[in-house]
Amino acid sequence: TETIRGPPAAKCYDDDGAPTKAVQGFLKKNGASVDDLTIAVDPSAGKKDAGVEYVWLKRDVPATAAGPSLAAALQESVPKALANVSWKTMRWDQGEKHKSYPRPVRWVLSMHGETPLGLSLFGVTSGKTTVGARIGSEEPKLEVSSAESYADVLSSKGHVSFLVPTERRAEIRRIAEHVASTVGGRVPPTADTESLLDEVTGLVESPEGVSGEFDASFLALPRPVLEIVMKKHQRYFAVEKEDGSALLPSFVAIANQPCDPSACRTGYEKVLQARLEDALFYYEADRSTPIEEHNARLDGTVFHPRLGTLLDKCKRVQALVQPVGKLVGCSDEAIAQAEDASAYMSFDLASQVVMEFPTLAGTMASHYASAAG
């Protein structure tokens, strides 16, 4: 049964004791009659309504028909949900139809409590078996007795140390900071580091830190270039001096599963060396090109089919500087400086470094302009 509170009793009956429209609406809504009503105060009412009497309706709630079991519902909904997800996929042949998923599916583990759900996904029927890491583990195939034991099975067999993403992220931070401290530095406390932490957390399951070095001559590159080469291409953490004043010729890489530190370090350093050589080539080529030439190249880049090139855009902005400057009360000197700057406000978009690393647009303009005097 359930009890429903209606309107205040004082508003439910007229002077003759006949039910008012207020109570008639309440009765109609709930499919009841006047005889089903009782009058009482609401024990949960606040001070304002204490002692106010209300009409109450007590009625039986009809039993609802049993719905499908959770297992049956998941068997129907999970395949549909996965089929509606849009992502970059691989295609492979499974029986009569091509299947697509980010990677070919070889097994599926799906359980509710101790019950295997038996989902049919990508030509595979799910069961109680999963497969762990191929390296550094006791056995590749693992039997999972229940959904609740999944994490314990993976960790106890040495397959996944930190299954929960937040715990894994915290461990990666701890590892990176510890490895950086062994070379006398620290991981930069920046937003870029936080975003890299998020990315690496999604890439590894059992993080293992490896320190590496690069030739100190590459420190001639602007710091943002060094950091983005390590972050974008390699997912390495940069290492800076303890006071944050400059980068050290070191980095921290996060391996997935324990590895031979010496062998991993050699591989990590070799790959980064090639990336840094490319970046240094782009940077020196840009430095050897006059700013005016970079700017002129903007005439070959369309900003918008109906608005011309990037150079046309710069010219429009430059034409606005004087009227807007006078409108807001800028000095003649400030207006002149702004006019000069606006003429070259996007020149680095034609540079090789920015073409390779678009997020450095504006940052590289500052470096090149300073170098050019």
Which key features would you list for this structure?
alpha+beta, 373 residues, 4-stranded antiparallel beta sheet
Structural overview:
The chain has 12 helices and 17 strands. The protein has 373 residues and is α+β, with helices and mostly antiparallel strands. The strands form 7 sheets. The protein has a 4-stranded antiparallel β-sheet with strand order 12-14-15-13. Strands 1-3-2 form a 3-stranded antiparallel β-sheet, covered by helices on one side. A two-stranded antiparallel sheet has the order 4-5. The longest helix has 27 residues, at 261-287. The model has no long low-confidence stretch (mean pLDDT 90).
Topology:
Elements lengths: L1 E7 L12 H10 L6 E5 L11 E7 L10 H14 L6 E5 L2 E5 L9 E2 L2 E2 L3 E2 L2 E2 L3 E3 L9 E3 L6 H7 L8 H18 L2 E2 L4 H13 L3 E7 L9 H12 L2 E5 L5 E10 L4 H27 L3 H7 L4 E3 L3 E2 H18 L4 H12 L8 H5 L6 H9 L2
Antiparallel strand pairs: 1-3, 2-3, 4-5, 6-7, 8-9, 10-11, 12-14, 13-15, 14-15, 16-17
